[in-house]
Amino acid sequence: MSNPLLLSENQQFVVVVPAAGVGKRMQASCPKQYLTINNQSVLSHTVNRLLAHQRIAKVIVAISETDEYFAATSLAQNPDVICVCGGKERVDSVLNSLKVMQQAEWVLVHDAARPCVTHQDIDNLIDHCLVNNQGGVLAAPVVDTMKVAAKPQSNETGCLRVHNTIDRSCLWQAFTPQMFKTNELKQAIEQALTNGVLITDESSAIESAGLPSALVLGRRDNIKITRPEDLALARFYLNEQAKGKG
Predict the structure, then answer these.
(1) In 10 A of CB 37, how many CB atoms?
(2) Fewest CB within a 10 Å sphere: which of 5, 84, 153, 182?
């Protein structure tokens, strides 16, 4: 019998990168994926890191119809980057990207604003999914105390109050990439949208379809740039990884 790990080492994959968001929480003059770290856009850092992985053949980038920045990046001239029109929400961008894929059994989806993902984490995710023949997500156990905010009363203004504290023993923080069988993910998203199910990531679509989604332990430096202070942290992680310390 053939070794599935050896097969996975030779198999090539496509990664979808939804990049049509505006990133309002960054309070920046341009979408967060076009902010720069070391003279290169966040999106360029992310896509180039993915393409540098020996098992990734193509990256599909979904951008907004009104995007004014992508054409000026080096990614626009890269033959391994396929650009498609994104949608109003992340899930719409992912679905549009899946519709252009042909004859790919598996697909990975990765956030445009996660430039620090390591190749080792990508390998671990791919190997786990192929060996177990099921999709999965990079994730890490929650380490902070988790609070639920109380719904504000009609006469209350200002700060929120704590409603209760959640047992964190079974809570995990989801990262990307997330990897699933292409047809299953496409069908799960279409079904969820039809049924009005809230989809925040690919795993939530798979879960809504009653399909399994594995948790694959990932590194905590795989941060998503969301707020202004995240940009400096991502710069630090990228610099440390470049030195071989990451």
Answers:
(1) 20
(2) 153
Q: pLDDT tens across 76-117, in order?
A: 999 999 999 999 999 999 999 999 998 899 999 999 999 999
Residue 18 in tokens: 């939804």
CA–CA distance, 87 with 109 (Å, rounded to integer): 15
Torsion, CA 87, CA 91, CA 96, CA 100, rounded to 10? 150
Domain ranges of the chain: 12-239
The answer to whether residues 180 and 202 touch, using CB atoms and an 8 Å cutoff, is yes
Q: How far apart are CA 240 and CA 232, in angstroms?
A: 12
Q: Report how far Cα 6 is from the mean position of its chain's Cα atoms.
A: 26
What 3-state class would DSSP assign to 58?
A: strand
Dump pLDDT digits (tens) for 197-207.
999 999 999 99
For 12-239, CATH number out of 3.30.420.40, 3.40.50.20, 3.30.160.60, 3.90.550.10 equals 3.90.550.10
